[in-house]
Amino acid sequence: MDTxxxxxxxxxxxTLIGAGALVAVLSTLGLAxxxxxxxxxxxxxxxxxVTLESVKPGVFHDFVVLRxxxxxxxxxxxxxxxxxxxQEVLAQAGDMVAQGQPLLRFRNTELELExxxxxxxxxxxxxxxxxxxxxxxxxxxxxxxxIAQIEYDIIRLQRTAARRDVLAAKGWISRDQFDQVHDxxxxxxxxxxxxxxxxxxxxTLRRRQIPQIRSELAxxxxxxxxxxxxLDNLVVRAPVAGRLTDVDIKPGEIRNRGxxxxxxxxxxxxxxxxPIDEYYLDRVRQGQTGVVTIENREVxxxxxxxxxxxxxxTFQVDLAFExxxxxxxxxxxxxxxxxxxxxxxxxxxxxxxxxxxxxxxDWVMVVDGNGGHADRRRIKIGRRSIEQVEILGGLKAGERxxxxxxxxxxxxxxxxxxx
Length: 419
Hints:
Layout: H1 13-41, E1 42-46, E2 52-54, E3 56-60, E4 63-72, E5 75-79, E6 84-89, E7 96-97, E8 102-107, H2 109-169, H3 175-232, E9 235-237, E10 242-245, E11 254-255, E12 260-266, E13 270-277, E14 289-294, E15 297-311, E16 314-321, E17 334-340, E18 345-351, H4 355-359, E19 363-367, E20 373-378, E21 380-384, E22 388-393, E23 400-402, E24 414-418
Parallel strand pairs: 1-24
Antiparallel strand pairs: 2-23, 3-18, 4-13, 4-17, 5-12, 6-8, 6-11, 7-10, 8-9, 10-12, 13-16, 14-15, 14-17, 15-16, 18-22, 19-20, 19-23, 20-24, 21-22
Helix pairs in contact: 2-3
């Protein structure tokens, strides 16, 4: 009897069809994943469009580049203390002026009338106080005269009484004559202590009032001086010697109180102002030194002020020249130099480049051995300057890195360098 032949499972038609379909699906998915993965994680760029630099041991020069501008050390602004109509312009922009020199004259009729009225009232008040002070002094003199008169009368009557006592004893004068002189003497003796007490009280009052009167007089005199000075303010004078700038005023113009009229650049020299990248904010300190180049020679400078406010990704520093001020420096003149932040020291160094703006030094694209592509790698950096970056980890000496701009590299893991 024949034995039926059973076909193996793996050779059955249904199994073969299912396996083929599975292989096709897996192949399709693998190809799609490869294509999509390649599109998401890599980008192809011409090799000549990127800059490659090698990581090398060397000396890190810790400085920041300065691009400073010369500005006057002292600038004095001119404002209208009292406004009005411009009557006369006595100096023009660019003129050298001396301290106290008249620059501008205003006309202000309303102010003149106001000053005259206030001045009249102040003078009236001063006159009244002076009159009262004179009355107190006249009273003091009159009281002293009264005391002197009483004392004189007492002495005179004592002498008369002594002579009449002798005459009365001999009966040569009447009783009325005797009593009259003694009554006057007794009256003056009683009057003297009363007048003395009254004089003392008035003197105490006078001494208390005189300082008050003089204090009020001084205040009124100062107010009078200030009032008169308001008219003097119609003439604008140079507060310091220097060069007059930013003045554009014509006769007949109306300028209000407090309005800016111009400025004077005092002849006290120049300082330098330089913007520095905010990355160095915690490393720049007052007193640090550097150099700027003027006419092909290096001139030492020192940081005098650090403004920590960041604007447009930079902060401002002021620098002063060490030693004598360079000659021929002009306002606004641009100067280049460097500011020393620390000492030089051996380090693993990568040349600085545009990649820092995109990565902040957190990662770089490292080129493989044959130069066909560059892969993303996290690194750790230390100090950096305009020329160098100190590598603390993630890179080895001899490795090459793309250091040019990383625009378009932010979301890729590999850069394919097309030949």
